[in-house]
């Protein structure tokens, strides 16, 4: 009986300690008095927990002048070097890495050109592990301080089991990718769909900061979307919510790679723009379409304008379904050709349903290329930080 009581006390103690750490992390820098006020715990208990966290190297004292009074007050802040996570973004033609410290800053970025679709998943996992090891070593970070790896992968991801169910981009099917990384590195690993990682990032650090309900549309070589509600990524039944690319726009439309007709992606992805353009001229890259449009060539302006119209329609559909306060446009097509955002705006009068006009804002992605690395680092932090290090 006594033993159970003792265990309960330990659990409560641990819970309170993590809660204090959480308060310091979110409201840093903060004084002991403020923490006492927020928690309603005694100053003695707070003092004890704070000393323990200091001793464990998780937080530190900083001296700051408190506002108004001008008196120096000892403030508490987290120790950025207490723990680290690694964020990884696997794209079609490159892999990007970042080391995130406990203050959630990326302290170093690293990018390599690599085409995962030309290798098998094991080779790609091996390469990622090698690069991560090298990165940790070059930064001089003690290996055991790296508590998690987060990876964004384009495709349908079984997020709970760390399995890539289907990635048409890389030709992967049923790949237990998190396991491959975890076994090799001996660091806990979480994987998620790239756009879900991206929206988490925009919510924590970018355009969606402070928004209650944000939708993100990714337009590039494929089309997808993600939704975050009060900080929680909406996942749907099997983490596939937001697979917009194969929603049907016209049952008699263009034939899609999936075998159906008239899927959204056959109207607005990069490949569809190139196919359209080839009816007029011999091109191989979407950049040529935009260059011709800037050059006032009629066929190119027509294609770009039609793409903007369909993006506008997509925004309308999403807004009608979810009523978000913010819609973020992201992906190569939007990030490389910003003029399309203005065109989408011009079409909005025509395509947005009246009750929603002026009720939400459309903004281009703020974090652009770094969003997934940051979001993946944050995802690993959210997953593994409370369990990590000496304070477990
Ligand atoms: Zn399709």
In words, what does this structure look like?
With 392 residues, this protein is of the alpha/beta class. Helices cover 42% and strands 22% of the residues. It has a five-stranded mixed β-sheet with strand order 5-4-3-6-10. It has a five-stranded mixed β-sheet with strand order 13-12-11-14-15, with helices on both faces. Strands 7-8-9 form a three-stranded antiparallel β-sheet, with helices on one face. Helix 2 packs across helix 3. The radius of gyration is 24 Å and the shape is globular. The C terminus is likely disordered. The structure holds zinc ion (ZN). Zinc ion (ZN) binds next to loops.
Features:
single chain; 392 residues; alpha/beta; Arc Repressor Mutant, subunit A; Nucleotidyltransferase, domain 5; five-stranded mixed sheet; 42% helix; globular; disordered C terminus; binds zinc ion
Rg over C-alpha atoms, rounded to the nearest angstrom:
24 Å
Strand coverage percent: 15-25%
Q: In the CATH classification, which architecture of the largest domain applies?
A: 2-Layer Sandwich
Major beta sheet summary: 5 strands, mixed
Span of the ends, CA to CA: 24 Å
Write the layout of secondary structure elements.
Blueprint: H1 2-27, H2 32-39, H3 43-55, E1 59-65, E2 72-78, E3 84-90, E4 94-101, E5 106-113, H4 121-139, E6 146-153, E7 156-158, E8 163-167, E9 172-175, H5 177-185, E10 189-193, H6 194-205, E11 213-219, E12 223-229, E13 232-233, H7 265-268, H8 270-277, H9 286-294, H10 298-322, E14 326-330, H11 332-336, H12 339-351, E15 361-364, H13 371-384
Parallel strand pairs: 3-6, 6-10, 11-14, 14-15
Antiparallel strand pairs: 1-2, 3-4, 4-5, 7-8, 8-9, 11-12, 12-13
Helix pairs in contact: 1-3, 2-3, 4-5, 6-13, 9-10, 10-12
This protein binds zinc ion (ZN).
């Amino acid at each position: 009986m006594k033993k159970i009581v003792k265990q309960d006390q330990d659990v409560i103690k641990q819970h309170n300690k993590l809660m204090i750490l959480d308060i310091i992390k979110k409201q840093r820098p903060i004084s002991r008095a403020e923490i006492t006020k927020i928690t309603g715990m005694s100053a003695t208990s707070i003092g004890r927990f704070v000393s323990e966290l200091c001793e464990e190297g998780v937080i530190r004292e900083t001296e700051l002048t408190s506002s108004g009074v001008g008196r120096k007050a000892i403030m508490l802040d987290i120790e950025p070097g207490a723990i680290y996570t690694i964020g990884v973004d696997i794209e079609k033609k490159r892999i990007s890495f970042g080391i995130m410290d406990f203050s959630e800053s990326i302290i170093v970025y690293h990018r390599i050109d690599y085409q995962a679709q030309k290798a098998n998943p094991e080779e790609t996992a091996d390469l990622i592990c090698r690069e991560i090891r090298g990165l940790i070593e070059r930064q001089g970070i003690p290996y055991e301080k790296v508590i998690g790896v987060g990876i964004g992968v384009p495709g349908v991801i079984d997020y709970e089991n760390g399995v890539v169910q289907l990635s048409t981009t890389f030709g992967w099917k049923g790949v237990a990718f998190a396991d491959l990384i975890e076994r090799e590195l001996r660091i806990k690993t979480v994987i998620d769909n790239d756009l879900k990682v991206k929206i988490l990032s925009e919510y924590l650090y970018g355009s969606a900061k402070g928004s209650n309900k944000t939708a993100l549309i990714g337009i590039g070589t494929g089309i997808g979307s993600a939704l975050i509600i009060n900080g929680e990524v909406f996942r749907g039944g099997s983490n596939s919510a937001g697979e917009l690319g194969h929603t049907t726009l016209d049952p008699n439309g263009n034939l899609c790679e999936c075998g159906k007709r008239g899927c959204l992606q056959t109207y607005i992805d990069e490949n569809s723009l190139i196919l359209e353009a080839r009816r007029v001229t011999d091109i191989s890259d979407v950049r040529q379409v935009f260059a011709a449009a800037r050059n006032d060539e009629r066929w190119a302006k027509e294609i770009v304008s039609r793409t903007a119209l369909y993006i506008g329609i997509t925004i309308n559909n999403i807004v009608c379904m979810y009523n978000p306060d913010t819609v973020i446009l992201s992906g190569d097509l939007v990030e490389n050709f910003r003029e399309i955002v203005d065109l989408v705006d011009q079409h909005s009068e025509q395509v947005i349903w009246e009750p929603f006009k002026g009720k939400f804002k459309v903004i281009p992605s703020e974090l652009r290329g770094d969003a997934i690395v940051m979001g993946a680092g944050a995802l690993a932090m959210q997953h593994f930080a409370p369990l990590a290090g000496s304070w477990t």
